Structures are given as C-alpha cells and as structure tokens.
Give the backbone structure.
Amino acid sequence: MERVAIVAPSRVLTNVLRRVGDAGLVELSTPADASLETVARAAVVRDEVAALAGWMPAPTVPELAGRLAALGGAVVTISRPRGVEAPSLLRAGGLRGSLSPVVSTYGTVPYRDIDPTPLAAGAYVVMFGMMFGDAGHGVMLLVAAAVLYRAHRTGRQGHAGRPGALARFGRGWPFALGAGVTSILFGLAYGEFFGPTGLVPVLWLAPLARPLQLLLAALGVGALLLGAAYALGVVNRWREGGWPVALYSSAGIAGAALFTGTGLAVAGWYTGLDLLALAGGLLAATGLVLAFTGFLADAGGGPSGVAQAVMRLFDVVVRLGANLVSFARLAAFGLTHAAIGSIVWVGTTALWAGRPVAAVVVFVVGNALAFTIEALVVGVQALRLEYYELFSRLFQAEGRPFRPWRLPPTSGEARSCPSGSGEACRP
C-alpha cells in the first residue's frame, strides 16, 4: 500500500476526480461514498494546483498515473506519516477470497501483520475433521461442497434469471470441501463409516475404545496450533513495534518462551530426562521475566505498576493452561460423534432381524440428524478455538479495511471525459 497525492491543475480537478472515482483505486480522507463536489472541496489548492492525499495499492499506481496524465493530472508517491497505519487490502476474489471470512469475521488484519487466512482455514478444517470423524458423513460434505460450488459459479457468472437460494452461501464451498476431506481421513483413522458399521477398518484408534489416547492426541494438536500461533505472533509484534515489542509481549517472544519452556519441562518430567526438564524450566522462567518486564513498563512502574504487572502475569499463566485444555474439546466432540453413530448403528442392527423397514428408517433418520446437528456444533466449536485460542495471539490491534472512493455508477457525476477533452468536458 502506497501513500499518494492526486495532483492536478485546479481548472481540471473535477475531470481528474471523475477518472479517480471511476477507477476505484484510491482511498481518500473523504467517505468512500462521498459526492464529487464533496471530494473536490476537500482538495488543497495552492497557486492553481490542487492536491488530495490518499492510499492505493502499489501495483496500480502506474496504471492510474497513465489514465490521469491525459487530463493533466498526476499520481505522486509521498512518504507515510508517522503513527498512521495504512489500510489493509485483503484479497476478495478467487480461492483465497472464499477463505477470507474465517479471518474477516474476527476482525480486519492490521496492515503490518501477516494475513493468516490460508493457515487459519487449514487449522479450521483439521479441527473440524477430528471432531467429525466419519467417512460416510465426510462424503456427504463433499456432495454439499459440489452443490455449493455450482451455486457459487452460477451466481458469480450472472446466468439468466435470479441466482438460486444457495448462491449466497456458495463462497463457503472450500470449507465444505476441506471439512469433507478431513472428516473422511479421520473417519478412516477411527474406523467410522456412518457409525461403527465395520465397512472400513480402524487404521488408528476407535474413539470409544481408547478415549484417553484420543484426548492426548487432541492436546498434542492443540499444542502444535498454539506453537504456530505464537510463532506468527512474534513476527507480527516485530512488524508492529520492532524488537522491544516482540521481546516483551506476552503474545511475542516472552509468551512463546513461556509456552515452549513449559512444554519442554513437562516432556522432561514425563520422560525422566532431568536435563530437558531443567532447560524447559529455565526457558519458561525467562519468558515470565520478560513478560513481567513488559507489563511493568506498560503500567509505568511504581508499587501500583508492580501489582498490576503481577496480576497480568498471573492471568497469562492461567490462560495459557486454559487455552491448551480447551483443545480437549477436539476429543470430546469426536467421542460424542462416535457415540451418536454407535447408538444409531446398535438400534439399526437390533431392528434388522424382525423389522427391516424400521431399521432402515432408524439408520437414515439417525444419520441425518447426527450429520445436521453435529456438523453445526462442530463448526461452531472449531471457530471458537480459532478465535479465542489462536487469533488472540496473532492479533493485538485492529486494522481497518481499504475503502477506495468510487462514484456511483448510476450518477451523472460518474461520466468520464474522453482522453484529451480538457476543459470542454467540465460541467
């Protein structure tokens, strides 16, 4: 994103602004839907030269400069003011645009931060699949993804007639596709195909038979995701405020050291490796000292600052444990899904010998209810883990979206003058 100035002779400013509004590439200080007269009045005029400052994507500067040159205008790159955050421009089209709601519904990614959209979408579908592990239900999700993709394509291409009712949800097809794939993979690992039907072998573990192992695996997945969130958080803190912010922030190096050190200490204690446990304890203590220093600096020092820093440090430690334990829900909802599937299958087999029609009804209706209810619950839980456990470490500030100024296409103001028309085209 570049800070630019739109410069033009004041006598052709209106025509130049028409071109700028038609292009829709520049965010000005005026509202995005401001009228042409409002924007023109906001220009700074000196010696018959008018200028307006704004933001625009760097790759589009030459294109707009060429369009304005024919009218006597220019696009000049200027320095960014200190303390002013550039607007964030997230990709709205293509596959990445379809994945962006998983982040944009939480907030706008600050300009300096890493856009975690692909990683967040990947983490989401992995967590979904672990809680919704059934190969048969995964196939149903793939069918739903195909329907949503068709609706998305139909709505986007603007075929004759109004788009179908599913068109508004069509952009969600990548999530349905990813969730279907991961549900199939975990279903094969669990030996679940519309419940424990025996149609697929157990490649890893049966959730109801080995719940403790599933719980430990869920905590392991949570630890990996938290570690990745801390790594991205360190990079974001560095970009936001340099090495001091990255070093002392509880969502930066200090928090990452505490998290990693605690993990190493627990691993050393569990395996009996005293040296590993000692190294982990020292690393965790270093993270606590760094975080305390950062909190104390924020509080301004003094006895009250020390008390505030101690309380905030205690909160960090408690939340760290709570965040990791929160990933136990990956196992809990995986067990719930397997239990519902088992109940439906037991009921089906019990009725099959004497009442086969009732058995089929129980199997179909039971799986339909399990699919509908569990898919909704699991989808919400995966999103909750993303927002509260992961994104809270990635983002410490709220960005603002890039909102370019555009002339309404139906407005008479939006009629652009042909190249070289000069003053003759002015209203």
Notes: Residues 94-394 form one domain.
